[in-house]
Amino acid sequence: MSKVKVAFICVHNSCRSQMAEALGKHLASDTFESYSAGTELRPQINQDAVRIIKDLHNIDMNETQKSKLLNDIPEVDVVITMGCNVACPSLPSRYREDWGLEDPSGKTDEEFIKTAKLIEEKVIDLRERLSNNEILI
After folding, report:
1. Digit-coded pLDDT (tens) for 98-118
2. If DSSP codes are grouped into helix, strand and coil, which group holds residue 102?
3. What is the pLDDT of residues 11-64, one digit of tens each?
4. Is 10 labeled as catalytic in the residue annotation?
5. Which residue range forms the structural domain that includes residue 113?
6. Which of 9, 10, 52, 80 is flagged as catalytic?
7. Is residue 9 a contact partner of residue 79, using CB atoms and an 8 Å limit?
8. Catalytic one among 56, 88, 113, 124?
9. Catalytic-role residue among 50, 59, 84, 130
10. Is residue 41 a contact partner of residue 69, using CB atoms and an 8 Å limit?
């Protein structure tokens, strides 16, 4: 059986969803495949997010990821929205939840670290719920 495919989405696919994709690949690749996307592209991933994830987990998102649109990723089983303060992007899936995370863009390193650690906790929780069949796909 193939792994569950999880998409982390937000409008710009430059910060929270990118951190979630990186942490999903790092912490849960045994359980699910991680993708991120948005409805608009940014020329590059938020460099504060890149720096914080590199500092916390030694992952260089500039090397492994780029900003993607919803139609740039495969069909997915699970959609996780990051907590858009505008109309959240929609993507067909078998399960969907919103993580309600504030966008740290333009804020302090402490806010980026707080957001990264929340995403880490939520990725681990998602991995556990999928592994324990608490989310039926």
Report:
1. 999 999 999 999 999 999 999
2. coil
3. 889 999 999 999 999 999 999 999 999 888 888 999 999 999 999 999 999 999
4. yes
5. 4-131
6. 10
7. yes
8. 88
9. 84
10. yes
